Amino acid sequence: SQLSGMAATNQQIKRPFLSLTKQELVAYAQLHGLMWREDQTNADPNYTARNRIRHDIIPALQQINPQAVAHINGMAAQIQVQSELIQATAVAYVDQLMMNWPSVPTAWLGPTLQVFCQQHGIFQVKQAQITQVVNLLHNAQKPTGSVRLSADKQIVKSYQQLRLENIIDPANTVQVLPPTMLKLNQWQKFNDDA
After folding, report:
1. What is residue 151's three-state secondary structure?
2. Which of 106, 130, 108 is nearest to 118 (CA)?
3. pTM above the 0.90 mark?
4. How does pLDDT run across 71-113, given as a tens digit for each residue?
5. Which residues, other chains included, contact 33 with Cβ-Cβ below 8 Å and sequence gap of 6+?
6. For 54, which DSSP code?
7. Can you tell me the distance from the alpha carbon of 74 to that of 97, in angstroms, rounded to the nearest whole number?
8. Whole-angstrom Cα distance, residue 72 to residue 109?
9. Phi and psi for 43 in degrees, rounded to 5?
10. 184 phi and psi, to 5 degrees?
């Protein structure tokens, strides 16, 4: 999904000028006598990697192919459409994933796990964690097991089912008692009621 770049529409945010080049925007503004403000850091190619791409890499690509920006934007649009199709299909597999994960085609396990995590508010799942879960699912020697997804959540495999569980910190479940010295071969009194 990151390969598609910034979305032109995202919930409440609209970016109508995203597909236009800076030159097109400046030309339009000049033609219509519009004033604009520009952050001075945008002119420094060393300020951010994005500035370096904008000032050095894009012009070099345009020297090789004047349509480079149009081709990059076209490819990003294609990737966005494919990403939306993947998302929609993965959403359809989420219920199957939980109730009978073997019924989900192998190629769809990763995307479906990603959607499942997002639906449960876990957005910082790494690809390595998704791979761990898929490997756990395909490990016939381990019919049960778990993979930690965040500080307080884990996904648990139990035969053909998956579930999301809270992780209980074992440090909170252990009762720490004060040290007690016991004398051998003698009766001991531990509280006043005995």
Report:
1. coil
2. 130
3. no
4. 988 898 899 899 889 999 999 999 999 999 999 999 999 999 9
5. none
6. I
7. 34
8. 29
9. -80, -10
10. -70, 150
